[in-house]
Amino acid sequence: MNHQPVCAACSVHAARLVFDWLEKAYRDGNDLEAREKMAEASIVAGVAFSHPRTTGSHACSFPLTNLYGMPHGEACAFTLDYFIRFNAEHADGDGRITALARDCGFDSPAAMADAVHGMKNRMGMRTNFPC
């Protein structure tokens, strides 16, 4: 794991922007402020994973897109809540996942995973197979 504090700070900033603005941008494509914030989230997230690389959720997105035609962003979100739960239980020895959840305003990684799942439902994203 190539953890870097700058990348971690960018992860928190990008995640906060997504939690605050994604549904607004989804509901109203003419909301320029929401679209600007999501563009910022995209750029900052790119910086966040430029050194440590991406994780399981992103890796799983490629077959979902290539085999099932799922848009890339939806494919990344498809497994995100499950990976949050799995990683919090099995790979949070240093507390970074718990810290990310708290920095994003959640009491726990499980609460953050629930929020991701809720966002997917509210935006009509697929949450199970068949796609």
Task: Enumerate how many helices there are, as a single number.
Answer: 7
Radius of gyration: 14 Å
In terms of DSSP E residues, the strand content is under 5%
Q: How many domains make up the coordinates? A: 2
The counted number of beta strands is: 0
Question: What structural class should be given to the helix and strand makeup?
Answer: mainly alpha
Instruction: Give the helices and strands as they follow along the chain.
Output: HHHHHHH
The rounded distance between the terminal residues' Cα atoms is 32 Å
Please mark out the parts with pLDDT under 50 across 5 or more consecutive residues, or reply none. none
Provide mean pLDDT, rounded. Answer: 92
Shape, per Cα inertia axes? globular
Q: What profile does the largest beta sheet have?
A: none
Percentage of residues in helical conformation: over 70%
Give the helices and strands, then pairings:
Blueprint: H1 5-27, H2 32-48, H3 56-68, H4 72-78, H5 80-90, H6 96-103, H7 109-122
Helix pairs in contact: 1-2, 3-4, 5-7
Question: How would you describe what is shown here?
Answer:
By secondary structure, the chain is an all-alpha fold. It folds into two domains: 1-53, no CATH class; 55-125, no CATH class. Helices cover 71% and strands 0% of the residues. The chain has helices spanning 5-27, 32-48, 56-68, 72-78, 80-90, 96-103, 109-122. Helix 1 packs antiparallel against helix 2 (32-48) and helix 3 crosses helix 4 (72-78). The N and C termini lie far apart (32 Å). The mean pLDDT is 92.
